[in-house]
Amino acid sequence: MKVDSSITVLACNVTIKNVEVDSGVPYTGDSTPDVFAIWLKQDENCGVTLDHVSVITKSAPNVYVTEGIRTAYGGATTITNSKITGTQLGMTLATGTIQNNYILLGPTMRGDHNENILEDGTSNLSLIHNTFLNPNLQTSALSLFTEFGLNKNLLIQDNLLAGGGYTCYCGDGKSDNNGNPARSVNVSFVSNVFWKLYYPNVGYYGEGRAYNPAGGGQWIGNVYMNADGTLTNQAVSQPPIDQ
């Protein structure tokens, strides 16, 4: 089934399956309104499941979509076997499981952040076996910020990551942007592939920054892929904690 424009979810325990959302508005500069192709506004105490769902930015020139999938109130989300293309951001979520998905961002338009995954103070989230591609030199494929709270119990495993300024903003290092002590707990990067598809350093500035292994977090088994798609056994070094 195809949906032209957007979907907003208000109820608990909704499942959306086998749906393509074709979304976007004409880009008119910084005054262009926000467009969330799928906006999950269920109560924070209940979940939503998306499976085999596509968000496609419309093909006409200068079409703008702010974000493919956005969670408003922190409800649990399961997203599997889905695709997002051409948006400025891929997903902003809370707790849940994101597995077997593909996100390819569009070019920077309104000056927004460009992230496949944007999180800020998130708990109990698993990102497993996804492809996150950001051809822009800002912001990242994966941003795990902590301005709005701690990141706790996050698993990032078996993903293919490429592009952005830094491909991963991996946490808050020793302190957050306000100088408070580090607020990442048990955030693990396991067996991910950092692809030099767009830039020799994976991201324009590098693979990642500010990873803190506090509380049992691990950085293990992460390797490079060359631009031509050749997988290497060269380990990606753990990003400096104080960067």
The profile of the biggest β sheet is: 16 strands, mixed
Rounded mean pLDDT score:
93
Overall, the morphology is: globular
Q: In which range does the helix fraction lie?
A: under 10%
Class of secondary structure makeup = mainly beta
Strand content: over 45%
Number of E strands? 26
Radius of gyration: 17 Å
Please tell me about this protein's structure.
- The chain has a domain of 131 residues.
- A hairpin with a 5-residue loop joins β25 and β26.
- The strands form three sheets. It has a 16-stranded mixed beta sheet that branches. Strands 2-5-8-11-14-17-20-23 form an eight-stranded parallel beta sheet, with no helix packed on it.
- The protein is an all-beta fold.
- The termini are far apart.
- The model has no long low-confidence stretch (mean pLDDT 93).
- The chain contains no helices and 26 strands.
How do you describe this structure in short?
The protein has no helices and 26 strands. It is mainly beta.
Jot down its keywords.
16-stranded mixed sheet; eight-stranded parallel sheet; globular; single chain; 26 strands; mainly beta; 243 residues
